[in-house]
Amino acid sequence: MKMGIIAAGTGERLARGGVAIPKQLVPLGGKPLIARVIEAGAQLNISSIACIVNDLNPSVAGFLRSTQWPVPVEMVVKTTPNSMESLFCLAPLLSDEPFILFTVDVVCARQVVRDFFQEAVAIQDSKGVLALTDFVDDEKPLWAAVNGSNRITALGDAALGSRFVTAGFYYFSPDIFAEIAPAHRKKLSALRQFLGHLLDKGYPIHGVRVPKTIDVDYPEDMEKAEAYLREINEE
Questions:
Q1: What residue spans define the domains of the chain?
Q2: 16-53: buried (b, 16+ CB within 10 Å) or exposed (e) per residue?
Q3: What fold, for 2-228?
Q4: Res 214: pLDDT
Q5: In which band, very low, low, confident or very high, does the pLDDT at 203 lie, cut at 50, 70 and 90?
Q6: What mean pLDDT is reported for the chain?
Q7: 127 and 203 Cβ atoms separated by less than 8 Å
Q8: Is 62 a residue whose pLDDT tops 90?
Q9: Cα separation of 180 and 43, whole Å?
């Protein structure tokens, strides 16, 4: 199994709040965000990591190149217009086996990632598994509704009223990359739109419930994440 990391964002909301360093390198518990994500994935016995970073902050690519990681890290350096296009840029590196995918700004306990992975790989015939949480602390959460078999039945506005939102990490079959061209024809412009497209096309997508996760988008989220890491003893 491989791992993908979407880390090509520019961290505009953090920058507007006075955070001067690139979002990917924001230190939490003494470690940059991107290092925390890599370590979370590396514990799963993955074979390699494919990571996309933007070309606007060379220090991020420099950090990845200069640090010794527990598994090989392959890097794409490109500024993309959205998270969906970032995923598509990683397709050549992820198209030969299942992969776990992270957004760089998600903070959670390492055990949460292990438990999610074990449940995700046990779901037979699924093309995608989304981590879902009932801890809602995002200005634009992606709501998700699931049935009794944990299959996702609706996303976004169609799932309003559900208890769950996506938590920022996923497990996918590389079969989803067959939908790159259709997604472009439909002029989709976000990862959440692509997930909805997969659902509309009949791809079996499931959800696995996970505890609290925190997305680091604003300076105040950094404080919440630091407090959470102290709470779970993962500083």
A1: 2-228
A2: eeebeebbbbbebeebbbbbbbbebbeebebebbbbbb
A3: Spore Coat Polysaccharide Biosynthesis Protein SpsA; Chain A (3.90.550)
A4: 93
A5: very high
A6: 95
A7: yes
A8: yes
A9: 30
